[in-house]
Amino acid sequence: MKxxxxxxVCLMLCGCYNYNELEDLDIVSSIVVDYKNEEYFIKxxxxxxxxxxxxxxxxKSLSDAFESITLVSPNxxxxxxxxxxxxxxxxxxLKLTNYFLREPKVNTTFYFILTEISDVYSDTNxxxxxxxxxxxxxxxxxxxxxxxxxxxxxxxxxxxxNEDKKIEKLYNMSLYLLACCMGNTKxxxxxxxxxxxxxxxxxxxDYHMNYNYxxxxxxxxxxxxxxxxxxxxxxxxxMSENAKKFAGFFGCKGYALPVSFGPKALDxxxxxxxxxxxxxxxxQKSHAAYAALIPIMHWFATYDKEYAKENYYDFIFNVxxxxxxxxxxxxxxxVIKKDAAHEIPYYxxxxxxSLTHIGQINTINAINSLGLVKLLFKGVYNMAKELGLxxxxxxxxxxxxxxxxxxxxxxxxxxxxxxxxxxxxxxxxDNTVGLQHIYPASQIGFNSGExxxxxxxxxxxxxxxRLDDNGSNSYLPAGARIGVDPDFLIEGIHQNxxxxxxxxxxxxxxxxxxxHLTTVPATINEMLMQSYEGVxxxxxxxxxxxxxxxxxxxxxxxxxVSAELKDGNVTSLKIxxxxxxxxxxxxxxxxxVINKAxxxxxxxxxxxxxxxxxxxxxxxxxxx
Length: 624
Prior knowledge:
Blueprint: H1 2-13, E1 25-36, E2 39-48, E3 51-59, H2 62-70, E4 76-78, E5 84-88, H3 93-102, E6 111-115, H4 126-132, E7 137-141, H5 142-146, H6 165-181, E8 207-208, H7 234-238, H8 240-249, E9 260-261, H9 287-302, H10 305-311, H11 313-326, E10 328-330, E11 333-335, H12 354-361, H13 367-387, H14 394-403, E12 409-412, E13 415-418, H15 450-460, H16 472-481, H17 486-500, H18 519-528, E14 529-530, E15 536-538, E16 548-555, E17 559-566, E18 569-577, E19 583-586, E20 593-595, E21 600-601, E22 605-607, E23 610-613, E24 620-623
Parallel strand pairs: 1-4, 1-5, 5-6, 15-19
Antiparallel strand pairs: 1-2, 2-3, 6-7, 8-9, 10-11, 12-13, 14-15, 16-17, 17-18, 18-24, 19-23, 20-21, 20-24, 22-23
Helix pairs in contact: 9-11, 9-13, 11-13, 13-14, 16-17, 16-18
């Protein structure tokens, strides 16, 4: 009996349950996909020892087309060694990439070829065709293609980081995963986007207003994906009645928001034990100003007047109304009082501790709020003037812009640094709140003068926050804004990939969800190009000994910029004007500006290495 049992157990333990003989497989090397007359046509090139064979299939869907091939192939279709997928311009890119993402037996290291030639499926020699049409194609690897999903313009943005494929892959996949989350414009992503795998996720996956909700959108405009913004305002509009009521709690007009809320204004903010009107503010008044940050980014990146007027001007105006009332003018300066830099647990019912809570409760001029409010009034003023609205407010907004309190500073470790607040908390070793006036609030950069830049860099290096649970998505781009060593930032990206990147390319930090998908693209974009001060700067934080190029990064002022850096010099620079606004570029060696349409030079003004010129809508310019 024992011998029989041993024999049976041995049978059960044998491995390679899914083993296949090589001769039972049709190993696919290349695929052609075309779409015509509401049907998909595919052609598979199969490697068969020293020759190739081709299978044709068609169907109403890609799945049907592939299924039709199984009826004529005597073997299993094997896609794990796929090298190339060629497709025509008529194929739906979203459906194509989703098919291959969801097909478990396909590798994702193959290359896509987009060809302008139609009726590719009618040709017979697939392998030869691929080489014949190389003069009329665009080649992307799988992750490059993912970046143009849902793009109306089909403009491609590819930073060529040839020496660093890990970063290139994470750059592209981050944008693809963000696009996966942002397609539903009625229900934009909460803390964890589409990737909720448990009934009891932290913070119920809600909309957190003190950076979490906004952070995934940091990178979408410079990456030329403003369409991903389309759902952002929906939950903010749903909260409008509550926002008016909450502003009234503080004796102000306009809008104020709690720390968090759910879709369709779902109440997750009412708590009886909260000491601020039973609502979860946690001592912070900056939540609505933080929410206004992203539409203001959209405005400067697009200057789309109709879209702004219809979608977000009213919200931004009402946030400005709140701050008009909440600011206190003292000795000619506007001051922010009782607005904490960090959440204060005391307001949630924690027992009062005079050592920590008295300063937090009576905070004056929290540095992150100063940055957000400065951007808010810059944005609303610019927007209103462009739209021809609320001229009665211009004088007040100008006064606030000119006289809002300076950023507080102090001496730490023998160096002058930014302080978290004028009165209250001085510093915290965790989080990056003390740097968010630099990024994403865009109040300090290369145009700020060496004095402020030195203070910013001193603050930046007080402690290394590249792996911060909440703040790596702002810490790394902020470093590019103030010109820290590019190697320090690239190393930081690699640290994040090593410590927090999952196999599916999501990042899993302790304190947050999809907001870390913005880290890689936002940082790389800021290293390659900056424009937030009205000046396009090329490779401002890029190692000049490392060649690089990019296509169609979006600059403030509604410009698409393409450039190449080679041997330390900008050797190619093209700019497309989407709105016909004045363009200002800082770049050594520009000697002429040429309108691509007629190949004629146009006039420009020079100030050192900075040139400015007028543009026409949709015109393209070559700067040489």
